[in-house]
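tokens incoming
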């Protein structure tokens, strides 16, 4: 029996991609002010900027698109979407939003107040920014192994329960609820175990606090649980995912990840407490409660995506993708976050570019170098994304500088990953030539999206 884990689908529709010349890429990157977010996608060969909204839909989803009911209120597509979310999460109250951050903003607006603290393993950038925007302090309490790129732990996304306990004991009055991100995106796409989730839930419950899951990559997390957590191997990813949701009181979700859709999101809640206020806000900023900023066809695509994403062959191939690229890089001596996560491979830029100081933003510099070398677009998860320029002009820096190569779902084939590995290993061999960068212009929130940079 061949052991290669294959793409469990065949390709029905293709989209050409184009390799540019090194000179052209240098010109494009200068035009983009050294910011890969400002590049045109057509000038990118392998676009690993994000796994968000970039996946390929199935023939069944495209069929659903045609069946979309575009009625303003009470569309059949909404009820199919609601049934799919209820079936998965067990939560009766389902509020569609146009994407994950809209779900976050609405939930945080109704469930937090200025001066609150919300703990999580690691808040993703939009989650953090939405909390900060409301005067709420986001607290990242991932286990210590989660901050060590090379610490091998099966569940590096777990939250540090002792630190949560201390927070609740000392400042419990400021905590409206606990959050947890599955998988832990900013920490390397690392999973959270059922055991950790259960203990976190118990701890919060003892203090009367609900648990909200940032569920973007719930299916990948469920598959890691199946593969790694003792006693879980015989269960289906769906049964595990359902148990994950059963341990929490609600979730925010970006359907652009494990919804296998190109747009969409939702809030789902177990009890009524925040529902009315959330729906009121939804009508103001997203749309009527049965479409929430989406078209009926999008709701159909998500309803089907939420089922397909839990197919075991798909998840096995999905997790193998990152592992496969990771193995090639490790074999070539490139430092990455280990073990590989669900949706991405994270290069350790400080190890890749030891000649650069943190003030020269090694993560960003490596992103630029990867584009110049091979037309590959990744994203910096480091001090441009998470550092800050304070009002007094001083800079803060993130605890690591990583480059995330995130993989669109069902889009690239094994030879694309072979090419990526070759390009990265060739770059590693001449890493000393890579120049650092400095920030020239930046905005106050989420500065990485629009920042302008120059060579240091
Ligand atoms: N939470 C997590 C863990 C995420 O990874 C994202 C998005 C969001 C929330 C927000 O969802 O984009 O639909 O508004 N992450 C994307 C990424 C952008 O590239 O990792 P959104």
């Amino acid at each position: 029996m061949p052991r290669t884990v294959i793409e469990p689908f065949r390709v029905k529709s293709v989209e050409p991609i184009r390799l540019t010349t090194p000179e052209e890429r240098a010109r494009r990157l200068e035009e983009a002010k050294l910011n890969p977010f400002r590049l045109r996608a057509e000038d990118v060969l392998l676009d690993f900027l994000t796994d968000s909204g970039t996946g390929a839909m199935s023939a069944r989803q495209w069929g659903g698109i045609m069946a979309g009911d575009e009625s303003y209120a009470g569309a059949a597509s909404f009820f199919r979407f609601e049934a799919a979310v209820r079936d998965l999460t067990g939560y009766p109250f389902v509020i569609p939003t146009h994407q994950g951050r809209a779900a976050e903003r609405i939930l945080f607006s109704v469930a937090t107040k200025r001066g609150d603290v919300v703990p999580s393993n690691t808040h993703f950038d939009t989650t953090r920014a939405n909390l900060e925007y409301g005067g709420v302090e986001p607290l990242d309490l991932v286990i210590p192994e989660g901050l060590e790129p090379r610490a091998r732990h099966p569940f590096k996304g777990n939250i540090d329960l002792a630190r949560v306990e201390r927070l609740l004991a000392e400042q419990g009055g400021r905590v409206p609820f606990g959050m947890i991100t599955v998988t832990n995106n900013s920490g390397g796409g690392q999973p959270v175990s059922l055991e950790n989730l259960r203990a976190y839930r118990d701890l919060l419950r003892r203090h009367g606090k609900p648990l909200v899951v940032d569920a973007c990559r719930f299916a990948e997390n469920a598959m890691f649980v199946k593969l790694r957590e003792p006693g879980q191997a015989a269960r289906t990813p769906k049964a595990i995912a359902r148990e994950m949701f059963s341990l929490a009181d609600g979730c925010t979700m970006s359907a652009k990840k494990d919804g296998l859709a190109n747009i969409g999101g939702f809030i789902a809640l177990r009890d009524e407490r925040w529902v009315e206020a959330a729906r009121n806000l939804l009508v103001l900023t997203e749309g009527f409660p049965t479409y929430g900023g989406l078209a009926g066809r999008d709701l159909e695509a998500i309803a089907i995506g939420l089922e397909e994403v839990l197919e075991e062959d798909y998840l096995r191939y999905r997790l193998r993708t990152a592992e496969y690229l990771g193995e090639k890089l490790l074999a070539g001596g490139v430092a990455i976050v280990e073990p590989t996560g669900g949706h991405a491979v994270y290069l350790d830029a400080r190890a890749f570019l030891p000649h650069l100081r943190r003030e020269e933003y090694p993560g960003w510099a490596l992103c630029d170098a990867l584009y110049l070398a091979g037309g590959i677009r990744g994203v910096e998860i480091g001090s441009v994304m998470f550092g800050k320029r304070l009002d007094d002009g001083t800079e803060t820096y993130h605890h690591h500088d990583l480059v995330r190569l995130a993989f669109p779902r069902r889009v690239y084939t094994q030879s694309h990953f072979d090419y990526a590995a070759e390009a990265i290993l060739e770059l590693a061999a001449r890493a000393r030539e890579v120049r650092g960068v400095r920030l020239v212009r930046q905005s106050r929130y989420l500065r990485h999206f629009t920042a302008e940079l120059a060579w240091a």
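note: Residues 50, 52, 99-101, 124, 126-127, 181, 185, 214, 216, 254, 256, 265, 406 surround F0G (CB under 6 Å).
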